[in-house]
């Protein structure tokens, strides 16, 4: 087998520590784990296993197909655990039998989905409190209340639109709308806070926290120090080094010219591996020393200025994500979010689990 070019190392102990930390923030109640999009790119079954071993018993994914894979993977590894798995995107026509066969909970988002689900079976209800994306409208909730009260809902959920902006008035409004809805469904526990919502304080917590991003090491409090542990390291080897004279152009479109004689290292990583092509001003690292990205990001290659790094030789490992470059920085460099960086890491990166 060829030596893997790019290695994505995922630290199970850091995942577990992040879940324990967030669960410890819960004002009351419990903490779930959102493992949609293949565990934010890190492997849903692996990530969920780390959270489950740390004490997590409730999981969420986006799609039914993701839930079926997660159920099979967790049953194989933890035959006696029987964690709950909720499907955020809801119930499509004809899916009830599949949900029941795999012991999955649909998040019912519309009157039609509620009508399509037999009332005696357990389910989760979602209401919209300010995002206008999925979940019942307030008018629909009021109209359906007599029916909703007869149903077997184990949880009421809603989702913050701006929890990463704690000063925004919409957060308070969403908390108040959610509290009012909960009072209409006595005995049904509630869940509103995802990663950033947890840090809005106890009023936002209700009965179940529902983090995703922060579990994987993303900063839930942008602009403040990240309380989470890093879970991923992404490295790739230098494949070629060359000396270039002052003024020589590097890369597509000749967008960078060496300002002085320089050494350029090429690495086998590009936008096909998930780094945004627009990434600008980024710095990768070699042995903790900066190796700035120069020239355009290609599909499979990136060029680095390693003039100051004598150890930059073919085979030397370049840190793309790691202690010196976190996922939030990578998102900012690429004009996006760490969420998109994590979920875009390509299949060419070999996943390796440690811890
Ligand atoms: C994705 C998602 C979450 C987790 O959000 P993070 O910001 O990643 O913590 C929680 N709830 C719902 C409904 C989601 O769609």
Description:
With 355 residues, this protein is α/β, with parallel strands linked by helices. It has 2 domains: 31-216, Alanine racemase (TIM Barrel); 232-354, Beta Barrel (Lyase, Ornithine Decarboxylase, Chain A, domain 1), CATH 2.40.37.10. The chain is built from 11 helices and 20 strands. The chain has a 7-stranded parallel sheet. The protein has a 5-stranded antiparallel sheet with strand order 12-15-18-17-16, with no helix packed on it. The protein has a 4-stranded mixed sheet with strand order 19-11-1-20. Strand 13 (249-250) and strand 14 form a beta hairpin. It is elongated. The mean pLDDT is 97. The structure holds pyridoxal-5'-phosphate. Residues 34, 36, 88, 159, 194-195, 210-214 line the site of pyridoxal-5'-phosphate.
Brief account:
This protein has about 350 residues and is α/β, with parallel strands linked by helices.
Basic shape? elongated
CA radius of gyration is 23 Å
Helix content: 25-40%
Main sheet: strand order: 3-4-5-6-7-8-9
Report the CATH topology name of the largest domain: TIM Barrel
User: Any idea how many domains?
Assistant: 2
Distance between the termini: 25 Å
CATH superfamily of the largest domain: Alanine racemase
CATH class identity of the largest domain: Alpha Beta
Uncertain parts: none
CATH architecture of the largest domain: Alpha-Beta Barrel
Structural class: alpha/beta
Count the E strands: 20
Overall mean pLDDT stands at 97
How large is the count of helical segments? 11
**What are the bound molecules?**
pyridoxal-5'-phosphate
Query: In what range is the share of β-strand residues?
Result: 15-25%
Q: Main beta sheet: strand number and arrangement? A: 7 strands, parallel
Active site: 36 (proton acceptor), 252 (proton acceptor)
Protein name: Alanine racemase
Keywords: Isomerase, Pyridoxal phosphate
GO biological process, one term: D-alanine biosynthetic process
């Amino acid at each position: 087998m060829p030596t893997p070019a790019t290695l994505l190392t995922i630290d199970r102990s850091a995942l577990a520590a992040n879940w324990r930390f967030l669960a410890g923030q819960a004002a009351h109640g419990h903490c779930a784990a959102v493992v949609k999009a293949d565990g934010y790119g890190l492997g849903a079954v692996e990530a969920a296993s780390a959270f489950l071993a740390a004490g997590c018993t409730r999981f969420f994914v986006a799609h039914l197909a993701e839930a079926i894979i997660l159920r099979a993977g967790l049953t194989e590894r933890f035959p006696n655990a029987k964690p709950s798995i909720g499907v955020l995107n809801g119930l499509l026509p004809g899916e009830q039998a599949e949900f029941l066969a795999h012991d999955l909970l649909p998040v019912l988002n519309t009157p039609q989905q509620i009508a399509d689900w037999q009332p005696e079976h357990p389910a989760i209800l979602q209401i919209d409190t300010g995002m206008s994306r999925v979940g019942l409208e307030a008018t629909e909730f009021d109209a359906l209340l007599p029916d909703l009260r007869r149903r077997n809902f184990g949880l009421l959920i809603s989702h913050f639109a701006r929890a990463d902006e704690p000063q925004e008035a919409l957060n308070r409004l969403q908390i108040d709308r959610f509290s009012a809805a909960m009072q209409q469904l006595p005995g049904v526990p509630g869940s509103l806070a995802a990663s950033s919502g947890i840090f809005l304080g106890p009023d936002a917590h209700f009965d179940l926290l529902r983090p995703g991003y922060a579990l994987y090491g993303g900063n839930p409090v942008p602009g403040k120090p990240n309380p989470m542990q890093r879970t991923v390291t992404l490295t790739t080897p230098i494949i070629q080094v060359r000396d270039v004279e002052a003024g020589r152009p590097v890369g597509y479109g000749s967008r960078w010219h060496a300002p002085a004689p320089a050494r350029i290292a090429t690495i086998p990583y590009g936008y096909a591996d998930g780094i945004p092509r627009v990434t600008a001003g980024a710095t990768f690292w070699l042995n903790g020393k900066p190796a700035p990205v120069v020239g355009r990001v290609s599909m499979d290659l990136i060029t680095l200025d390693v003039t100051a790094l004598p150890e930059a030789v073919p085979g030397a490992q370049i840190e793309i994500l790691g202690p010196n470059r976190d996922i939030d920085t990578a998102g900012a460099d690429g004009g996006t979010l760490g969420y998109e960086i994590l979920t875009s890491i390509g299949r060419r990166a070999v996943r390796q689990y440690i811890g």
